[in-house]
Amino acid sequence: MGRCILGLTADEGKRVCNLLLQRMDLLWSGLMELVMLACGKYSLVHEFFKKVQKSSIPNALIYKVLVNTFWREGKTEEAVLAVKNMERRGIVGSAALYYDLAHCLCTSGRCQEALDLIEKICKVAKKPLVVTYTDSGNIQNAVYIFNQMRNFCPPNLATCNIMLKAYLEHGLFKEANELFNKMLDDGNHISRRSDYKFRVIPDIYTFNTMLDASIAENRWDDFEYVYQKMLRHGFHFNANRHLRMVLDASRAGKGEVLEITWKHLEQEDRIPPPPLVKERFSMMLEKEDFDSALACITTNSAGESQAFCKSAWLNLFEENDQRFRKDTLMRLMHEVRVLATQSNSPNPVLQNLLISCSDYNRPRVKVLGFKQT
């Protein structure tokens, strides 16, 4: 009997083809089940699973979809029995399957049983997944699982970030802060690549989570501390994310946060956004440090004529009226004139500032029976 190119007989080739087709059928079956699950057609998933059982042995993907279906239906015991049935058949479950089952168990409060599955997850996963939180919102269960997790596998960043968020959502700022500081401390003990297997350092999500929480709790000292650590860890000021935070901190008495941001932007050769320029200008003006105040706008206002137009300056003076002494703007006008004479070419920003100071300081007379125009 002749041999084919692969070195198989015709009969052997047929058997291989049939086996491949059977596996393709199982793959398509799993995908079909996934579509039914996504559409919420749980009854169709069960019906389809029964049909697959009659014609072939379901694979791990099909069992994973079945577990997810039972989970969404709130049938925890049925999900457990389905996995036991799979194991009796000698089918090796995937890490994702055991993870979903563990999540299902946590949802119904069966956390210890979920922990028992972690050993199975570790056997089949290259990077073990861990269960950190429960859909039922039980923070005690989340803490218990988080602490027990360390007996099975090293901590990881995703787990710590989820736990951090869980603490904060339940008003446990102290516990969140302790976890955050533990992550910071881990960063101080990393000297080689292998250290990352056993230690976790914060990422930008970690820092933003703590910044948001500090503002929500009006913990400005904590905000300043977290913000400084964020910059020192190599993360950058993001105007879309951090501008409002820095402005609020400055107006809450944490001017150092603005100064840190200012120096950070200077080091990166970045132009500060106009609201930041105006806030630092106001802060320096409040201290009557006219040189520093004017330096803010003469070096950082190029190309931002609209942000520093006459009406913008008037709005700034009106909004910050309580911050300045009565004679501060008069003295500012003098300093602006002196600075303007030292320049060979006119500076539109300084001209707008001078005109606005003059308009703002002009006495406003109101006469009864007449409207001012």
UniProtKB/TrEMBL annotation:
PPR repeats: 59-93, 156-190, 203-237
Protein name, as recorded: Pentatricopeptide repeat-containing protein
GO cellular component, one term: chloroplast
One Pfam family of this chain: PPR
InterPro entries: DG1/EMB2279-like, PPR_rpt
Organism: Populus tomentosa
GO terms classed as biological process: chloroplast organization
Domain of life: Eukaryota
Coiled coil residues, start to end: none
